[in-house]
């Protein structure tokens, strides 16, 4: 073990979206609750543990879930509410260390190495966090405590829901050895199959093989896996982890056809993604268009602008320009997506009154900000350009 042992806690809320729904509607307690996209092609975003007993799990098509669990309670995603609860949970995490790396709304790594003097041993910090989340927010969070990120993450998952698993610094290999090889980071089903052919079923099986053999069979990747299997993982908790892109996409209930329809959908997506960008206070330089055809073949096209924008109109113009490089006008389209990357904080930009920006642009920005305020108050569908009105009326 290293000279300076790290203490890492991985925290993961239990069935987060579904648990928030039960928190807000206590009469749902004990029911199979499924949160997800409503509609023919929606997928499950979260399933309560009661629902999981029927084989329902996240990323499953809603149609499948309904077949497995016909009497379940199906609810739409309420992202702004989950974000609110998430902020309160992260506020609790940050009471114990500034080194908090969010992995999603409901999951984080904490490096508590330097917190011990103030707050006690890592296991007691984990217990205290679990208690505070339960008391102040009313939800359960599972925790794993270990000297490495990978071991902490595996540990938090072992005793879910409402579990706490502690891996002492000198017991990492003992902890990993009996676990199935699929638990190792970066091991997908294809690798699992190949490993099985070599007689490797557990992490311990892998760790006992000579490094050379793994290198010969799987290259650099094999060498990395061998290291991980032996408990090596020196990645540190990164609190500066940044949002790299912001996107919006839609899978249509029925495939869409024709340039006019495609453009109408792209306009709607541009408005949504630009609004999301502004809500996070970012500007973007790179616009990416994704088109998936009815045969599931997919193309992406990207364009980097000469300036950074948070304007739906400019995003829309960029994706329309890229449409010519796709077959979206002549083939059936199943999915459209727009993502914005090369993000910069809006506050770092010069004020819009500076010379470079033409007046129309400043005006546009003011207008879109006003629309944001209205839609925050009255909902996403309150303000839309006239070309989309007939869609919204439906
Ligand atoms: Mg979770």
In short:
The chain is of the alpha+beta class and 394 residues long. It has helices at 16-24, 49-52, 62-68, 79-94, 116-119, 122-137, 149-158, 172-176, 189-197, 203-208, 211-229, 259-279, 312-323, 359-378, 389-393; strands at residues 8-13, 33-36, 44-47, 73-75, 100-104, 107-111, 141-146, 164-166, 245-256, 282-293, 298-309, 333-345. 41% of the residues lie in helices and 22% in strands.
What keyword list fits this structure?
single chain, 394 residues, alpha+beta, Alpha-Beta Plaits, DNA polymerase, domain 1, Dna Ligase, domain 1, five-stranded mixed β-sheet, four-stranded antiparallel β-sheet, 15 helices, 12 strands, 41% helix, 22% strand, globular, disordered C terminus, binds magnesium ion
Kindly describe this structure:
This protein has 394 residues and is α+β, with helices and mostly antiparallel strands. The chain folds into three domains: 1-170, Alpha-Beta Plaits (2-Layer Sandwich); 177-229, DNA polymerase, domain 1 (Orthogonal Bundle), CATH 1.10.150.20; 245-393, DNA polymerase, Y-family, little finger domain (Dna Ligase, domain 1). 41% of the residues lie in helices and 22% in strands. It has a five-stranded mixed beta sheet. Strands 9-12-10-11 form a four-stranded antiparallel beta sheet. The protein has a three-stranded mixed beta sheet with strand order 3-2-4. α7 (149-158) links the parallel β7 and β8 (164-166). α4 (79-94) packs antiparallel against α6 and α12 (259-279) runs antiparallel to α13 (312-323). The longest helix is centred in the last third of the chain and has 21 residues, at 259-279. The chain is globular, with a radius of gyration of 24 Å. The N and C termini lie far apart (63 Å). Residues 12-13, 16, 106-107 line the site of magnesium ion.
